C-alpha cells in the first residue's frame, strides 16, 4: 500500500483495527518506525560454531540486562503492575530450553547466530499466533520484539530504545516494546495506534493504564501516514481516521464531549450502590486477570473481585510459580480489596491455555482434555503450592477459592482432602494462614448442572461460567467464528441450565453467582435479576454501565419479562423480548448499548 503523499494526502481515510483502550483523541501523529531485521541465511564453518554461540549468548545477555533496567524504570514510572509485561519478556529470555533451540540450529544446521535466532524465534512466534487464546496470541508480539532486539545486537547495533516525544502527539508504530513505552511521557501522549497487537498486547495494557485511547492491529497504518498528519483515533470502536474532513472533526469533537459527559456521569454513578428502584441490592464484583487491573476496581466501584483468573501467573515461563511467589501475589490482591472479598480461581490451564515452557501437552481435543482441575489432581505438588498460597493470603478472611471445570462431586471431594493436607503442611511449617476458607465450584460443564443438588452439599458457593457452559451445552467451540451464530447465552437450553443451578443453590442455601460474559451483557441484566442472581462479576470496564442499568430497573418489571422468556422457544425470540424490554423501559440506554 502506498504512503499518503501528494494528491491523496488530504483525502479522508478510515482504517479499522482492534479497540484496545477507549476514548477519542484528535491530533498530529508521530510515526515511530524501526527497521525490520531479516538476516539472510549465512552458513558458517564448524570452527565458527563456538564463536557464534557465544555471540548469541552475549546478545541475549545484553537484551536481558536492558530489560531488567527498563523493569526498574517502569516500576518507578507506572508501578509494579505494568512492569509485569517486562517480566513476561524476561521469562522468555530465561527459558533455557527455548534458547537451547537456537544453539542447536547453529550447531547442527551451521547457520550464523543472526539467522538461527531469526529462524527459531519466527517459529515460536508463529506457534503463539496459532493459539486460540487471545492472551497467548498477543505474546507473539513479545517474541517478535525480542527477536528484533537480539538480532540487532548480534549485528552490532545499539539496542537502547530511541523514542522520545516533546509535544502532544498520537504515536503510530508497528509495535511498541515495553522499553519504548518508558520513554513516552504521559502528558505528551495523546494515544497509540499500532500495526500489530491485540487486546492484551503491551501497547494495549500500557494505554489502558495511562488512560489514553489506543487502537491496535491496524496492519499497515505505519505505511499509510507520515509524522504530522492529523488523525482522529477512536479507541472505543477501533478506528483511525486519517486526514479527517472539517465535518468529520466536528462530529468527533461532539462525540468526544458526549463521552466526557457520559464518563463523568458514570464515575458519579459508580460510587452509588447497585440497587434496583424497588430496593433489590446486587453484589457487583470485578473479574480480573492481572494485578495491574487492581486500581480500576476501586474506580468503578466494584465490591471486590468475583473472579481472579490466576493463569497469568503460570504462563510464559519455564518453571512453576512457587508457593512464595503466589503468596505474595494473592496477599497483595487480598489486602488491596479488603474489606471486600477476592475469589481466587485455581489455575485453569490446559484447553487453549497451555504451558509450553513447563508441561508439553498435545491433545486431540484439548477442551475435553487435561484441563484445569483434572490437570491439577494429577499434579498434586503444584496444586498444593497454589492451595497453600491461597490459604496464606486469607489472613484477613476475605479470600475464597473457586474450582474451574468441575464435572463431578468426586473432584471436589479430592480437592477438599488436598485442602486439608495444605493446612496440615502449613501448620507443620509454622506459616500463618486464614481458616475457614470457602471452597466454591464453577458451574460450566453440563454434568455439574445436572448434579448441582449434590455438588451443593460439598461446595460453599457456585459461580456460573457461562463462557464454557454455553460451549459445552451447545457443543459449540467458543472461539470458532464459523459456529459463532449458534453460540448464545440466550439459548433456551442455557437459560434452563441457569434455572436448575439457581434452584439447587436455593434448596441448599448456597449462593449462586455468575462470572461468565453473560453477567457483562447489558441485555441480560433484567433477566438475570428476575431469575434471582444476587451476585454478578464482570470485567471492570463494564461495571459502571451494568450498575447504571441495575439502578434504573424495577424488579417487578423484570419478573414480568422473565415470565415471557420462560414461554419463548427460540434464542431469537428471547433476544427480541429482551430488546423490546430495553427499548420500552430504558430507551436512552438501548441506544447507548447499540443492541
Ligand atoms: C467461563 O467459562 O464463563 C469463565 C468465566 O471462565 P473462562 O472464561 O476463564 O474459561
Ligand atoms: Mg471457563
Give an account of the 3D structure:
- The chain is an alpha/beta fold and 595 residues long.
- It has three domains: 12-35 and 161-244, Glucose Oxidase, domain 1 (3-Layer(bba) Sandwich); 46-154, PtsI, HPr-binding domain (Enzyme I, Chain A, domain 2, Orthogonal Bundle), CATH 1.10.274.10; 280-541, TIM Barrel (Alpha-Beta Barrel), CATH 3.20.20.
- 49% of the residues lie in helices and 13% in strands.
- The strands form two sheets. Strands 1-8-7-3-4-5-6-2 form an eight-stranded mixed beta sheet. An eight-stranded parallel beta sheet has the order 15-14-13-12-11-10-9-16.
- Helix 16 packs parallel to helix 18.
- The longest helix is centred in the first third of the chain and has 30 residues, at 49-78.
- The radius of gyration is 26 Å and the shape is globular.
- Residues 1-8 have low confidence and may be disordered.
- Magnesium ion is lined by residues 404, 444, 465, 467-468.
How are the elements arranged and paired?
Blueprint lengths: L12 E4 L1 E4 L2 E9 L16 H30 L1 H14 L2 H14 L3 H17 L4 H21 L14 E5 L4 H5 L6 E6 L7 H9 L3 E3 L4 H4 L5 E5 L4 E4 L3 H25 L12 E6 L5 H6 L5 E5 L13 H15 L4 E4 L26 H6 L2 H14 L5 E5 L5 H21 L8 E6 L2 H5 L1 H7 L2 E4 L1 H8 L18 H17 L2 E4 L10 H7 L3 E4 L4 H10 L2 H13 L3 H15 L1 H7 L2
Parallel strand pairs: 3-4, 4-5, 5-6, 9-10, 9-16, 10-11, 11-12, 12-13, 13-14, 14-15
Antiparallel strand pairs: 1-8, 2-6, 3-7, 7-8
Amino acid at each position: 500500500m502506498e504512503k499518503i503523499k501528494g494528491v491523496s494526502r488530504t483525502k479522508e481515510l478510515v482504517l479499522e483495527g482492534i479497540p484496545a483502550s477507549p476514548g477519542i483523541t484528535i491530533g498530529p501523529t508521530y510515526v515511530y518506525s524501526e527497521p525490520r531485521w531479516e538476516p539472510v541465511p549465512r552458513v558458517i564453518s564448524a570452527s565458527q560454531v563456538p564463536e557464534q554461540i557465544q555471540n548469541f549468548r552475549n546478545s541475549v545477555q545484553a537484551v536481558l540486562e536492558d530489560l531488567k533496567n527498563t523493569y526498574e524504570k517502569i516500576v518507578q514510572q507506572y508501578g509494579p503492575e505494568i512492569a509485569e509485561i517486562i517480566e513476561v519478556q524476561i521469562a522468555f529470555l530465561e527459558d533455557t530450553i527455548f534458547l537451547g533451540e537456537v544453539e542447536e540450529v547453529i550447531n547442527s544446521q551451521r547457520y550464523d547466530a543472526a539467522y538461527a535466532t531469526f529462524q527459531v524465534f519466527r517459529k515460536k512466534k508463529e506457534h503463539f499466533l496459532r493459539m486460540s487464546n487471545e492472551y497467548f496470541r498477543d505474546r507473539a508480539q513479545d517474541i517478535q520484539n525480542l527477536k528484533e532486539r537480539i538480532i540487532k545486537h548480534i549485528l552490532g547495533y545499539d539496542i537502547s530504545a530511541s523514542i522520545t516525544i516533546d509535544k502532544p502527539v498520537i504515536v503510530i508504530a508497528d509495535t511498541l516494546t515495553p522499553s519504548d513505552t518508558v520513554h513516552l511521557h504521559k502528558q505528551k501522549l495523546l494515544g497509540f495506534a499500532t500495526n500489530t497487537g491485540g487486546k492484551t498486547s503491551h501497547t494495549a495494557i500500557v494505554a489502558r493504564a495511562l488512560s489514553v485511547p489506543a487502537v491496535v492491529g491496524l496492519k499497515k497504518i505505519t505505511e499509510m501516514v507520515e509524522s504530522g498528519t492529523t488523525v482522529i483515533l477512536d479507541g472505543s470502536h477501533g478506528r483511525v481516521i486519517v486526514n479527517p474532513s472539517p465535518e468529520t472533526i466536528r462530529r468527533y469533537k461532539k462525540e468526544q464531549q458526549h463521552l466526557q459527559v457520559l464518563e463523568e456521569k458514570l464515575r458519579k454513578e459508580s460510587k452509588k450502590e447497585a440497587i434496583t428502584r424497588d430496593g433489590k441490592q446486587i453484589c457487583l464484583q470485578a473479574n480480573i486477570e492481572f494485578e495491574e487491573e487492581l486500581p480500576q476496581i476501586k474506580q468503578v466501584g466494584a465490591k471486590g473481585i468475583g473472579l481472579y483468573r490466576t493463569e497469568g501467573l503460570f504462563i510464559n515461563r519455564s518453571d512453576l510459580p512457587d508457593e512464595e511467589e503466589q503468596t505474595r501475589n494473592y496477599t497483595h490482591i487480598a489486602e488491596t480489596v479488603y474489606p471486600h472479598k477476592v475469589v481466587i480461581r485455581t489455575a485453569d490451564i490446559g484447553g487453549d491455555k497451555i504451558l509450553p515452557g513447563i508441561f508439553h501437552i498435545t491433545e486431540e481435543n484439548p477442551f475435553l482434555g487435561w484441563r484445569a482441575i483434572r490437570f491439577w489432581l494429577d499434579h498434586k505438588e503444584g496444586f498444593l503450592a497454589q492451595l497453600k498460597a491461597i490459604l496464606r493470603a486469607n489472613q484477613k478472611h476475605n479470600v475464597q477459592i473457586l474450582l474451574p471445570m468441575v464435572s463431578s462431586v468426586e473432584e471436589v471431594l479430592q480437592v477438599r482432602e488436598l485442602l486439608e493436607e495444605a493446612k496440615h503442611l502449613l501448620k507443620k511449617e509454622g506459616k500463618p494462614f486464614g481458616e475457614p476458607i470457602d471452597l466454591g465450584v464453577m458451574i460450566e460443564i453440563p454434568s455439574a448442572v445436572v448434579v448441582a443438588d449434590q455438588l451443593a452439599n460439598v461446595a460453599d458457593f457456585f459461580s456460573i461460567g457461562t463462557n464454557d457452559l454455553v460451549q459445552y451445552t451447545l457443543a459449540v467451540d467458543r472461539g470458532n467464528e464459523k459456529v459463532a451464530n449458534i453460540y448464545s447465552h440466550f439459548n433456551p437450553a442455557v437459560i434452563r441450565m441457569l434455572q436448575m443451578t439457581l434452584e439447587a443453590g436455593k434448596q441448599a442455601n448456597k449462593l449462586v453467582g455468575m462470572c461468565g460474559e453473560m453477567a457483562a451483557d447489558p441485555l441480560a441484566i433484567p433477566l438475570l435479576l428476575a431469575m434471582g442472581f444476587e451476585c454478578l462479576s464482570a470485567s471492570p470496564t463494564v461495571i459502571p454501565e451494568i450498575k447504571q442499568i441495575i439502578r434504573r430497573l424495577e424488579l417487578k418489571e423484570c419478573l414480568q419479562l422473565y415470565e415471557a422468556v420462560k414461554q419463548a422457544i427460540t434464542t431469537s425470540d428471547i433476544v427480541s423480548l429482551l430488546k423490546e424490554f430495553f427499548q420500552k423501559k430504558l430507551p436512552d440506554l438501548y441506544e447507548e448499548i447499540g443492541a
